Task: structure prediction
Amino acid sequence: MVTLVPVDTRTELTGFLMSRRAKLRPETVGLPQYGERRRVPGLRREELAQLAGVSVTHYTRLEQGHGRNVSAEVLEAVAAALRLTSVEREHLTNLVHPPRRVPGPDEPHVRTDLRCLIEGMEHTPAFAHGRHGNILAWNESAGRLLGDLDALPPPRRSWPHLVFLDLPFRSMIDDATEWDLIARQHVAYLRLSLGRYPQNPDMDAVVESLRSSSADFRRLWAEYQVADWSGVTCHLRHPVAGDLEIAIDVMKPGGEPDQWLVTFTTEPDSPSQEALRQLAT
Result:
């Protein structure tokens, strides 16, 4: 049984800022180098504070997790100095000023029209998942491609659990590079969601379960990557359908900010399309 350890926002803020500071080099941001041996990778705190135009004391307190009183202007200056993407800036803001929880169910039901859309994709495996990758609705084709989703207990019926902990599914992705790309997307999105939904027991439970059960997850989680979903193409070696070249696309249905539609498609008139059609019938 996994012991739930709530994710500490201050620790997250410290790790995130340190990881981004470590990625920068003095020569790439216009700072002089004097040939001295650097004991840590990337920029020093003093150098980052100089780039951001803030005091070393202010930046140090921020990196130590004391960010509640930091202004939006200071956060923007730090984000610019760290060369953060728009999604990383959102994450930084969420860690410093956590969003308020909106009253209502933590995981709303899938809309009827979205369920009909999924079920109508007769030859296209598809499912809808929630905030932390929990699979909420799926069609028969998805079950045949991914395995018996009905047989999985709800805590393990999730997209990240399939990728990291479901051995039959993971064994279908025999290219380590492709698996790593998919795994990194899951980890980066989970970390983004952690900031969007602070103090969420379900989110904490998913992260702790993966962290305690998967060395690969722990390795990638330690990198503090943050990103939204994006599509990816991979090769699956399915035990029934054989070799499949699959495009995994992720879309956000209109009016559902906390749910995503995932589809598995193939090139038209390709051997993979025919094999997927045979699998679905």
Observations:
- The two ends are 39 Å apart (CA to CA).
- The longest strand covers residues 242-251.
- The CA atoms of residues 34 and 161 lie 48 Å apart.
- The beta strands are 126-129, 135-138, 232-238, 242-251, 260-265.
